[in-house]
Specification:
Layout: H1 2-9, H2 17-24, H3 28-40, E1 44-46, E2 53-55, H4 57-87, E3 90-97, E4 100-107, E5 122-124, H5 129-136, H6 140-147, H7 162-175, E6 178-181, E7 188-196, E8 202-211, H8 217-237
Antiparallel strand pairs: 1-2, 3-4, 3-8, 4-5, 6-7, 7-8
């Protein structure tokens, strides 16, 4: 199926069943079945008069998403490297995906005992600093959806009481940064700040994370401005207008 779809990526205009079958050395029956499956998923569309196939709206969405992710990661990497150097801890960048958050990239700490993250795995928006910093600056609809849904406990320290979570989110908005201590993963701590789009709503977050024993009160206070300024710098690169400059 992937080979059939990629055939259209390098072609201008539409292709018919016979042409795709010829290029891939497949039978017309097999190609026709694959094409119909791709159409059902809106990855391809059928042209009315000719009956040929062209890339569909879902393919455009995937391409735009891939470019956005690539741009976010490329712009984030030098900032993450600097943040890791300044803090000595693992620096990460996350993106909002639907009603979840995923890690896009990380620059791991050089310390022997360190925290690393799982790239691409979705995490809920109510648990942990990277998630809460996104939720605090999310659209009202998304915040309402999360708060009115099931707040599942990932660890004994996950905030699952709605009133308590709302109070914490209000604090995150005031301070422009969030901290967590074992909320998503036992023994792990993090400080995170939101990545803001042009409309002022969060599309992701930047964080530093490590063993909870290294994240004492004094350390966390030192990390706040470093993480916050890094997130604001990346947000500006992504089109957010910093009115406090």
């Amino acid at each position: 199926m992937a080979d059939v779809l990629l055939t259209f990526a390098g072609t201008e205009g539409a292709l018919g069943v016979s042409e795709v079958a010829r290029r891939l050395s497949l039978s017309k029956a097999v190609v026709h079945r694959i094409l119909r499956s791709l159409v059902s998923r809106r990855l391809l569309a059928v042209e009315g008069e000719s009956g040929n196939y062209r890339l569909g709206p879902a393919a455009a969405t995937l391409g735009a998403r891939a470019l956005r992710d690539l741009g976010l990661r490329e712009n984030a990497l030098p900032i993450l490297r600097r943040l890791q150097y300044e803090t000595g801890e693992t620096a990460t960048v996350s993106e909002l995906v639907g009603v979840s958050r995923v890690y896009l990239d990380q620059v791991p700490s050089h310390q022997e005992i360190k925290m690393t993250v799982e790239i691409g795995r979705p995490f809920p928006l109510h648990a942990g600093a990277s998630s809460r910093s996104i939720l605090a600056f999310s659209t009202p609809d998304l915040r309402r959806q999360i708060l009115e849904g099931s707040l599942r406990a990932l660890t004994p320290r996950t905030i699952v009481d709605r009133a308590e979570l709302e109070a914490e989110l209000a604090r995150n908005v005031r301070e422009g940064v969030a901290a967590s201590f074992g909320e998503r993963q036992p023994g792990a701590a993090s400080v995170a700040a939101p990545l803001l789009a042009a409309d002022g709503h969060a599309i992701g977050s930047i964080s530093v994370c490590g063993p909870v024993g290294r994240f004492g009160e004094e350390t966390v206070r030192r990390l706040y401005p470093l993480v916050r300024s890094s997130a604001r710098e990346l947000s500006r690169k992504l089109g957010w207008e910093d009115k406090e400059k």
